[in-house]
Design a protein that fits this description.
The complex is a heterodimer of chains A (about 300) and B (about 100). With about 300 residues, chain A is α/β, with parallel strands linked by helices. Chain A has one domain: Leucine-rich repeat, LRR (right-handed beta-alpha superhelix) (Alpha-Beta Horseshoe), CATH 3.80.10. Helices cover about 35% and strands about 15% of the residues of chain A. In chain A, strands 1, 2, 3, 4, 5, 6, 7 and 10 form an 8-stranded parallel beta sheet that branches. A two-stranded antiparallel ribbon of chain A has the order 8-9. In chain A, strand 3, helix 5 and strand 4 form a beta-alpha-beta unit. The termini of chain B are far apart. In chain B, about 15% of the residues are buried. Classes of the chains: A alpha/beta (about 300), B mainly alpha (about 100). At the A-B interface, helix 1, helix 2, helix 3, strand 1 and helix 4 of A face helix 3, strand 2 and helix 4 of B.
Chain lengths: ~300, ~100
Amino acid sequence: MVGEASIHAADNLLCLEKPYPTINLTLDAMAESLVRRHEEYLHQEDVLGTFYDVLSLSKALPHFRNLRSVTVSRFDLVDDAPGAYEATTERAWWAIIKALNKCEYPVERLHVDAVYNGMLHGVSMSKMTQVYTVLGELKELSIPAISLGNEDNRPGHAALKVFLGSGQNLEVVRLGNTNRFRMDLVDKDLGCVWPSLRVLDLAANTAVEAEDLVAFLELHSNTLRELTLRRVGLLVRVDNDTHWVWERVFERLHNSLTLTKLTLSHLQAPHGLGLPAVTKADMREWERTVPRSPDEMAVDWY
Amino acid sequence: MDSLPLEILTKILLNLTPNPSDRLVCHSFDDILTPGCFRRIRTREFTKDAFDRLVSLSQSRVSRYVKDYEYLVHPPVYRRTYYTHFLLLLGHIRKC
């Protein structure tokens, strides 16, 4: 009977691209060759294992006394949250958050290319407190790809609400939702989360409750001046024999908000009502008519 | 060069295509160009050297010019399974 220790685990062998020259090499030479071939990986493991990135950022950032903007980004510029970057983005996120908590100056702008579950959900309260501290000082937050949970599993929803709610001084908010099943970013239950909100840029990538969207925007009507909506659809919900269509949404927003700039792209008409698709001409027309003209603003002022 | 007023020299230099090494020409060039050269900094390599350079920069006189910091993230070099396999193979070789 063959003992377990003598079984050769063939699937544990590293697959090398080229035939490995083992015949004329000593064992040390083979080991050195392997190290040379995988130098990049070994450097990476060295940094990960010693938390060199976390420690270095905590050491460096507090010395940049005029630092006002921090960005965590990827090489590609797509507004998506690819799984390949999840671990490294999470690592960078926590390193930056820890470092910013050590800074005595306030950072005004934070941009993160993508937010994954592990950056907001299932994290200890002490770590989340560090996040809220950073967010509480920000004036501008930009996250083009928020990727939390899926249709059935909504673990990040409550965490996202608290996260967004902690940005009490935010004036500019740019958010993108990558979960194509639902939209968690704006919700009337959130209330007036950003009392100083001046610029809002939302990429929904799905259909939203028009009533929630309008109610949320109206809660910020005192300060909101620039609105951008991208890739937003409307859920069909008939109330009192009427239903929300984009014309109705923008008519309401024209009356309730004092926008100076509206930017629209890829809006979708409600499905199942036989309505024509929203055209570029429609969007250009709303962009022109919904914001208040300088004259109207002057009348409102007096 | 010394006879040019600083304001005019500043206008000339800031209108040229940025080249960080220009600040090494003389003290005047250094005074004018250094703030712009270090306004935005970026970490793009996940190595000890890269983080050492960041720490070194933070402790130098130019740290006060830094206003924007960008941390460029990479996907892991290998998948986790390959890391493990590689280390196992390395272990086999060392034991032989």
